[in-house]
Structures are given as structure tokens and as C-alpha cells.
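I am hoping you can look over what I have pasted underneath with an eye to the fold:
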Amino acid sequence: MDPTFQRVGDLKDIASYPAWLGDVLADTDAAKQKVTGHPIFAAMREAKLAPRQAEAFLVNGWPVVEQFPQYMAMNLQKLRYGHSRGEDLARRYLTRNIRVEQNHADY
């Protein structure tokens, strides 16, 4: 990562970030579409999950939601404070997003 990186535009605009991140997103787009296009998520959005489907999601999917902030915290522990601009940005990102992910689990 370029230690001088500063986001230059909107948070959700990929052009605001280094080119390598665009490559990562392009390379993983097919996998993302498989997940986001899965019928279970469409049923959730439309509030049409059958009771058995809701139960299966809570039993099998919920542990991932609940444990994700812990996974992010383990990665936060690997970063050294003040070592580089990139690590400082990563620390800030993880710190803020751990709270967001914890809210998902709390909900």
C-alpha cells in the first residue's frame, strides 16, 4: 500500500481508492454476485422466508454474523500503531467497522 494514500472522493466511489482495490473488486465480483443473488437473500429482502428457512439461516448463518467482529478484532491486533500511514488507516477502518459489525450482531 502506498503510505501516502489519501481517499480523494466519495466513500462509496471506487475511483477514490488505489487501482489495486478496483482489481480486487473486479476479481471477486462473480463470488459476490453468487452470494447477493442467492434466493435466500431475496426472500429475506421481501420478508418471504418460510419458518424452516429462517430457522436454517439462524442456525447456520448467524454464527458468522455474531463472530465477524471478533475476526476483525483479531486482525486489528496485528497492526502496529504509528508504524505506517497504511497501518494507521487500516486500524481506523477496523476500529470503526468492528462497531458496525457488532451492531449487526446486536440487532
